[in-house]
Amino acid sequence: MTVLKTSMRNFFAHKGRMALSAVAVLLSVAFVCGTLVFTDTMNTTFDKLFQATASDVTVSAKGSSDTGQTTSRTGKPPVIPASVIGRIRGAHGVKSAEGTVFSTSVTVVDGDKDKLSPSSGAPTIVGSWNGNDARTMKITTGTAPKGPDDVMVDADTADKHDLKLGDEIGLISAVGTRHARVSGIAAFKVTNPGAAIFYLDTKTAQRALVGESGVYTNVNVTAAEGVSDARLKKDVAAALGHAYKVQTAKEVADANQKSVQSFLNVMKYAMLGFAGIAFLVGIFLIINTFSMLVAQRTREIGLMRAIGSSRKQVNRSVLLEALLLGVIGSALGVGAGVGIAVGLMKLMGQMGMHLSTDDLTVAWTTPALGLLLGVVVTVLAAYLPARRAGKISPMAALRDAGTPADAKAGIVRAVVGLVLTGAGAWSLYVAATADKATTGSGWLGLGVVLTLIGFVVVGPVLAGGLVRVLGVVILRIFGPVGRMAERNALRNPRRTGATGAALMIGLALVACLSVVGSSMVASATDQLDKTVGTDFIITPDNEQLIKAKEVAAVKSVPGLARVTEYRPTVAAFTTPDGKTLEKTDITGADPSYATDLRTKTVAGDLKDAYLPDSMSVHEAFAEDHGIHLGSRITVAFQNGTKAAHLTVRAITSDDTVIDKGAMYTSVATMAKYVPADQMPLNQLLFASAEDGRQAAAYKALKTALHDYPELTVRDQTDYKKALKDQIGQLLNMIYGLLALAIIVAVLGVVNTLALSVVERTREIGLMRAIGLSRRQLRRMIRLESVVIAVFGALLGLGLGMGWGATAQKLLALQGLKVLEIPWPTIVAVFVGSAFVGLFAALIPAFRAGRMNVLNAIATE
């Protein structure tokens, strides 16, 4: 009980200093709990949606996607004949069966030709209004579609794009473009995360999406009373045989959930990873806090030992303080985590993904995990200071002699740190010289961990040298005040090293990712300059395909010398070694593709691959299957009428980034074996202008494709900018997440300075008494803070650039061979660190300046 009272008294006696450490715990726990609540809520939202929209049993074509996505390269969904419905209705246990038609390969535009597709990447679904949809949606305005000129839209899309009854909508599919007017608006009875849904009547949907009547993409089957979904599936499958895909509601929901789970897991574990980094930074803050509190209470600890307190009781007293800190910080963090989750939901709403607080999911494991993490991390971080306090002998403590064997501990620390750093550097070297990316990535991970730990351990040793150098460069110009700031930073190298290490971690990751991102952009740009020989690249949005009418529009543009088609598909390959490889990618392209993409070959000429009944293979494929020039491969194209026997005329190098691993044949060869209505659509188009007409052709292309807003025309400059922007957006998002760790590091600097000021109260009073002004005192503390921040920045940026350079060596094995150091970013981060130091010193400097001189001198 005495230990508990002592711990409580000490805790509340230093509540201001404890508060900063509690904020670090709070932020870290809040980010973990917020991530879990947010992802659990997304899972709940999708679960409810998929369960509500699935019929008891769904029947679809054998080659259709489990999740309902239109996977056909023709742009039209796989279909089943209407006659199937009669056979299904005759199966035992069937209450009703209704055919539906829908597609996700449709671009929808408003009357001004603006896209109505979601910006979040969610699908655009156009389908027939049916009984299953009527069960899950409610018509709030107007009526369901009844004829070829009617379309009904979901309420979320209508609100987002301000659609009203009577507004015109255009639906661009592989079949053609159809115009209709909004006849109704329907709202989901569950949360719609962001899909845009448009409904036609069944006959219109068949003509607009498939191009023929009497076919359906799905049949929704409802079970009779007392018949389970599993039983119904078995009976329907027995009636149909093995020609169709039959799924229960749970199987459809599970397949849909699996399709979004990978995205959710990436988001979840990435955010938890950044929370872990914040926890790691927070550990330094907590260690510093308790180390300084213990040092300031050395005489008090000696008195406790002298009157009978055991080493274990002293240790326990400090750990109890840490436990209180962990419980309070974690409890507040759990509550803040729910707030963060709601904030993330609102942010996703701004990005186009709608999530409702009605689905907010707080599983019992979330607060339990948050409390456990926060308390365990805090107590573990306080263990070393607590153990150090318990080791102080009563007489040494009463003399305020400090902890014995500090010099010996410093030597051991330096040796261990150098060994770890050296082992990490060796691992990075092995990674940089690896022959395979898979092998090198393991060494890279080991090198990052070892060098990080090594720098943390050896930080106090580095602090002694680097702070002196920084003192000469930065502090000496401020005269005696600068020299005092330097001595203060050097007074306790362990503290300076730990504070700088907290900032080092976040900045090391920033530097590493900046190097990797810049190198990727520079490498891709270099590849474009070397390999792409076309003026314009035309690409569709959201994994759509380019329809025949759009290809015709491009080819009609005046001033173009050539237009190259690019039609990827899959085929079954039978190679010379007797192996049959199902669903192997192969691309049909025009002969001019060999000019538009200057692909390096290891044998033959890529132009010859476009000769009749010819093809190319990539280097690794040729090695794996013993293929050489003149080898013949039997190729059964998807939807083809007969197998093709193609001669290998070229073997392309794998030393590339663009189209790495691609295999080519000509469009004409593909058309010889695949019916015209089953030919895959173009994934992209290349276009080259006549000499001297690039600017005019670019403008003409933009004009010609105005009615097709899903297509984007880019010249090489546009393409490079789009690539840079894409990587830049990803890096900015990562920097935003790393900001949490940097905020915690700043709190660490504030806490270190605040405790340092308290520790030096008498010294500050004496300096004031002999003439040091308040302004000089504040400047001294600010300069000390700047030196600590710049010290951490130097370590972090140096370490991060080393990691980034090693990672680029691994990327070079994938063709990204250009190393680029983003010096503007590095310099900006370095300068920003100095401002971070100034900001962190504001409160401690202000408090120091307000000290009463006489009271400060009288402090024991």
From TrEMBL:
Residues covered by the ABC3 transporter permease C-terminal domain: 274-394, 737-852
InterPro entries: ABC3_permease_C, MacB_PCD, Macrolide_Exporter_MacB
Keywords, in A-Z order: Cell membrane, Membrane, Transmembrane, Transmembrane helix
Entry membrane topology: Multi-pass membrane protein
Location in or out of the cell: Cell membrane
Span of domain MacB-like periplasmic core: 19-238, 499-699
Residue stretches of biased makeup (Polar residues): 60-74
One Pfam short name: FtsX
Spans through the membrane: 269-295, 318-344, 364-386, 407-429, 449-478, 499-522, 733-758, 783-803, 823-846
Region entry Disordered, spans: 60-79
Family: Belongs to the ABC-4 integral membrane protein family.
PANTHER family tied to this protein: ABC TRANSPORTER PERMEASE YTRF, MEMBRANE COMPONENT OF TRANSPORTER-RELATED
Protein name (Swiss-Prot/TrEMBL): FtsX-like permease family protein
Organism for this UniProt entry: Streptomyces sp. 900105245
